[in-house]
């Protein structure tokens, strides 16, 4: 799939996950709890039956994107958007899908989170390797790669609001960054 099309689908997904978690699944949960208040088993069964397919489709999309998109530095920020969205919705996912029969939904959200993290780490590692290859060719390129790293870290820091950055950046990059903080 072309990046432009995938980018639009990711934007749609980011909007959809907010609406689905805050309105649709939450509303269905409230309605099921109200209508089937007298019987826990029926309440759980009905809510699971109503929400399972939609939730699985919703939370499998990031995994599909992570597995099938070409890893590149320019795509990292969209992947980070999806990663951050799932992280921010984790408490809602746990609260909305608490039953054992819904564990597959929680598991799918977690799997997507893990796959996105792996994809982001791979893209950043490949970006690091390409910068190191380029920077070893000339001094000017080395200066450029340091500027690129600084810009990348600033963008990642702002984008992730510091709460997921440490999980995603490869260890060699974290070491390089902390070393430059101490000596620059």
TrEMBL record:
GO terms for cellular component: exocyst. Residues 11-140 form the Exocyst complex subunit Exo70 C-terminal domain. The keyword Protein transport applies. It comes from the Eukaryota. GO terms for molecular function: phosphatidylinositol-4,5-bisphosphate binding. Keywords: Exocytosis, Protein transport, Transport. One of its GO terms (biological process) is exocytosis. Belongs to the EXO70 family. Component of the exocyst complex. This is Exocyst subunit Exo70 family protein. It comes from Capsicum baccatum (Peruvian pepper).
């Amino acid at each position: 799939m072309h990046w432009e099309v995938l980018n639009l689908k990711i934007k749609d997904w980011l909007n959809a996950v907010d609406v689905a978690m805050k309105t649709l699944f939450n509303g269905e949960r409230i309605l099921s709890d109200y209508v089937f208040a007298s019987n826990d088993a029926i309440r759980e069964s009905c809510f699971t039956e109503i929400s399972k397919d939609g939730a699985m489709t919703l939370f499998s999309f990031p995994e599909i994107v992570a597995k099938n998109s070409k890893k590149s530095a320019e795509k990292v920020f969209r992947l980070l958007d999806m990663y951050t969205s799932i992280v921010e919705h984790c408490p809602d996912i746990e609260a909305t899908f608490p039953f054992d029969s819904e564990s597959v939904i929680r598991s799918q959200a977690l799997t997507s989170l893990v796959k996105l993290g792996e994809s982001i780490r791979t893209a950043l590692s490949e970006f690091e390797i390409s910068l190191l290859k380029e920077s070893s060719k000339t001094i000017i390129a080395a200066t450029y790669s340091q500027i690129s790293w600084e810009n990348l870290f600033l963008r990642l820091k702002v984008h992730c609001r510091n709460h997921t950055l440490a999980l995603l950046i490869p260890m060699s990059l974290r070491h390089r960054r902390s070393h430059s903080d101490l000596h620059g």
